[in-house]
Design brief:
By secondary structure, this protein is mostly helical. It is about 65% helix and about 0% strand.
Length: about 325
């Protein structure tokens, strides 16, 4: 009886030259987070606007030179001295010479002041956020890992700082300190009162991971406390820290704008969005564009960082997100 033989499958001649298909399941956590962020329209919008604002702030001197005006340069030909210094033309003097119009009375170019104001506002906000994140992360990890008396002391310090009337203290400090660099002072004052929130988040995350198997294995293997904190615990709480950081920045931007609006922030002629909004209050009926333009940039900055922070929180810290 004849037996049926199945011919051996011969691979195509170019099979050896084909690159192996990439295993998408082996992608790292940060690459997966990036893919999930790209699938979220709100997160993409926030990321694009944040990137544009950062580029605008970094290139503020170049953009001012491109517009042809410095933020402190007066243009008396752009305002009408017989109408209280109101800008000539429609929409606050918007035109080829002044892309976003001019400031009433002084005639300073709003485009130059807005882009340089972005540099000041984002510099203070990001610097204060860095101070908050470093101090809060160090305190939270120490309290959660060591526990006992260290945890009790640091937790009471968090409670004390959070119960302090921070805004009143900020206003008092900024009013009293006259001959100090305002940007450094605002960064320090905002950072001093902002760290307890992230410290509590990091403390809770540290408590949840310090008894995991890999931490116990490192401890049994003879690793010291600082090595465990730096190589085992910190990388595993980095996701919530990053998500919380992006949610901190909008609050920092609003705080800087509020202090500048109250007149205790950066001093003129240094531009700031909050300072520009405060100056525009007297002209909101006669020149509404002077109020709308810096308010719009402030709104977009806060909205973009908030949307980006919400998306990162849902991706990196699903337990703390809404979905």
């Amino acid at each position: 009886m004849a037996t049926l033989t199945v011919p051996e499958r011969v691979p195509p001649p170019d099979a050896a030259r084909r690159p192996a298909r990439r295993d998408t399941t082996a992608a790292g956590p940060w690459r997966l987070a990036w893919r999930q962020l790209r699938r979220r329209p709100a997160g993409r919008f926030g990321l694009v606007v944040v990137a544009l604002l950062v580029v605008m702030a970094a290139a503020a001197p170049l953009l001012s030179a491109l517009g042809g005006w410095s933020p402190t340069e007066f243009d008396q030909t752009a305002v009408d001295p017989y109408l209280g210094g109101l800008p000539l033309g429609t929409f606050g003097g918007i035109g080829p010479d002044h892309w976003l119009g001019v400031e009433p009375v002084t005639g300073r170019d709003l485009f130059a002041r807005v882009v340089n104001g972005a540099q000041v506002s984002l510099l203070i906000s990001l610097s204060a956020t860095a101070v908050v994140v470093v101090a809060g992360t160090a305190t939270g990890i120490a309290a959660g890992y060591f526990g006992g008396r260290i945890d009790a002391v640091l937790s009471r310090l968090m409670d004390l700082t959070m119960s302090f009337p921070s805004l009143i203290f900020m206003i008092a400090m900024m009013s009293v300190a006259q001959d100090v660099n305002r940007i450094l002072l605002m960064t320090a004052v905002i950072g001093v009162f902002g760290w307890p929130g992230i410290a509590r988040v990091v403390r809770g995350e540290t408590l949840s991971v310090k008894h995991r198997e890999y931490v116990e294995a490192a401890r049994v293997g003879g690793s010291g406390a600082w090595r465990i904190l730096g190589r085992e615990i910190l990388p595993n709480v980095a996701g919530p820290i990053i998500a919380y950081t992006t949610l901190l920045i909008p609050g920092m931007i609003s705080t800087e704008a509020a202090l500048s609006y109250l007149g205790v922030g950066v001093r003129p002629p240094t531009p700031s969005w909050g300072q520009m909004i405060a100056d525009s209050v007297a002209f909101y009926e006669t020149d509404p564009m002077y109020f709308v333009i810096p308010s719009l940039f402030l709104f977009l900055a806060v909205l973009a960082f908030t949307l980006l922070g919400d998306a990162l929180r849902d991706i990196l810290d699903p337990r703390g997100g809404r979905g």
